[in-house]
Amino acid sequence: MTRKKILAICGSTRNNSTNHRLIKAISQRFADRVDLVPFNEIGTIPVFYPGIPPEEHPPQVLAFRQHIKNADAVLICTPEYAHGVPGALKNAIDWTVSSGEFSQKITALITASTDGRFGHAALLETLKVIECKNISELHLIISFIQTRLNTEDDFTDEKTRNDVEALMNALLLTINTG
Ligand SMILES: Cc1cc2nc3c(=O)[nH]c(=O)nc-3n(C[C@H](O)[C@H](O)[C@H](O)COP(=O)(O)O)c2cc1C
Q1: Pairing of strands 5-10, 35-39
Q2: How far away, in angstroms, is 16 Cα from ligand 1 center?
């Protein structure tokens, strides 16, 4: 059986982002079961402009859409900014609304932030309306993310480790059973 591929989109554009490190931690922990393909380029995607004809869509957008298409599932790990979704992440998702790459794509969301509740609810609603598959069951908030990872990019506490494992097991089960 070919190994499944999960596109792991980081919602932070910051160097040494905790969300980037979270993706690394998950990737290491699940290395024997699945390939996580990190996507850290949302900051390079131009501002969404609905007036551009499809044949003139920017190459960064085409590449982003292709990455989603090529993956068996998508995992989004993101902070919350000012009680909302980081602009770069929402901007990238907006480019896929008409082309429909997220429609029926198995998608999981982790909001890893200081708090995260507001951005999480807003992004969850967006992911539902663009028809991500099983999103209602595949989401998690990790609050105080700055204290949850050690210098080896592993989890510092058992609850976070268990929560992430439960989410990833559910995601893998969904991928393997359709
Ligand atoms: C502009 C800005 C606004 C923020 N607003 C929030 C917020 O509303 N809620 C929250 O939980 N954290 C907020 N934070 C803190 C982030 O959760 C924290 O910096 C987090 O580590 C960012 O994720 P990253 O490490 O992956 O970049 C904010 C950070 C920035 C830079």
Answers
A1: parallel
A2: 13
pLDDT tens-digit map of 67-112: 999 999 999 999 999 999 999 999 999 999 999 999 999 999 999 9
Write the residue with the smallest CA distance to atom 24 of ligand 1.
Answer: 17
- What's the gap in Å between 79 CA and the centre of ligand 1? 6
Locate the ligand 1 atom nearest the alpha carbon of residue 117 and give its number: 11
Q: Which atom of ligand 1 is nearest to the CA of 13?
A: 27
10 forms beta bridges with 77
The residue contributing the CA closest to ligand 1 atom 1 is 81
Domain at 5-177, CATH from 2.60.120.560, 3.40.50.360, 3.30.565.10, 3.90.226.10: 3.40.50.360
Domain parsing of the chain, residue ranges: 5-177
| CA dihedral over 26, 31, 33, 37, signed as positive or negative | positive
Measured over the CA atoms of residue 127, residue 61, residue 92 and residue 23, the dihedral's sign is: positive
CA distances from 35 to 61, 148, 159, 172 (A): 23, 23, 24, 11
User: pLDDT of 6-53, one tens digit each?
Assistant: 999 999 999 989 999 999 999 999 999 999 999 999 999 999 999 999
